[in-house]
Amino acid sequence: MTQKKLEANKTIALVAHDHRKDDLIKWAATNKEALAQHNLMATGTTGRLIEEHLNLPVRKLLSGPLGGDQQIGALIAQGEIDVLIFFWDPMEAQPHDPDVKALLRVGIVWNIPMACDVATADFLISSPYMNGTYTAALTDYDEYKNRKL
């Protein structure tokens, strides 16, 4: 196992499906002070809504269905995102369901904290690790990368 040290100022990715955007905005408003201590990144529409409602700076990527979920997944794999808050809609199929599954998968592969609902997001944002240093264990994928095909 290798390790990744997460410093106090974390990069948090915020994503929400259309029917969950209001939930994410309400959650973010409740936690505005805590979120302001970190770097925020979001898929397009979600990022715009957070900026409009909370007046916080957000690095906006593409909309999820246009590749924003994949952009966030790539940034997780590159070690540039520390936490993922992803309020996905379990009651409605999404046209980009494979991208959604891939994003959740890459979050697990790179062992980043993820929340998909308000309760878990509350636990994450209130954790002492959010404002402190945390050393995450990472699986060593060298054997996988160096395998002979």
Characterize the structure shown.
Substrate binds at residues 17, 21, 43-46, 63-64, 96. Pfam families: MGS. The protein has 149 residues and is an alpha/beta fold. The protein has one domain (2-145): 3-Layer(aba) Sandwich (Rossmann fold). It has 7 helices and 7 strands. It has helices at 21-30, 32-35, 44-54, 68-77, 97-109, 118-126, 142-145; strands at residues 2-6, 11-16, 39-42, 59-60, 83-87, 114-115, 134-138. It has a 5-stranded parallel beta sheet, sandwiched between helices. Strands 1-7 form a two-stranded antiparallel sheet. The model has no long low-confidence stretch (mean pLDDT 91).
Task: Give the topology.
Blueprint: E1 2-6, E2 11-16, H1 21-30, H2 32-35, E3 39-42, H3 44-54, E4 59-60, H4 68-77, E5 83-87, H5 97-109, E6 114-115, H6 118-126, E7 134-138, H7 142-145
Parallel strand pairs: 2-3, 2-5, 3-4, 5-6
Antiparallel strand pairs: 1-7
Summarize this entry quickly.
The chain is α/β, with parallel strands linked by helices. 41% of the residues lie in helices and 19% in strands.
Please identify, by name, the CATH architecture: 3-Layer(aba) Sandwich
Low-confidence stretches: none
- Identify the CATH class: Alpha Beta
Mean pLDDT: 91
Strand line-up across the major sheet = 4-3-2-5-6
Number of helices: 7
The first-to-last residue Cα distance is 23 Å
Q: What would you give as the CATH superfamily?
A: Methylglyoxal synthase-like domain
> Mind telling me the C-alpha Rg?
15 Å
Secondary structure category: alpha/beta
Please give the share of residues in helix: 40-55%
Which overall shape is indicated by the principal axes computed on the Cα atoms? globular
Total beta strands:
7
Beta-sheet strand percentage? 15-25%
When the domains are counted, the total is 1
* CATH topology annotation: Rossmann fold
> What is the H-and-E element order?
EEHHEHEHEHEHEH
The largest β sheet comes out as:
5 strands, parallel
Catalytic activity: dihydroxyacetone phosphate = methylglyoxal + phosphate
EC number: 4.2.3.3
Binding site for substrate: 17, 21, 43-46, 63-64, 96
GO cellular component, one term: cytosol
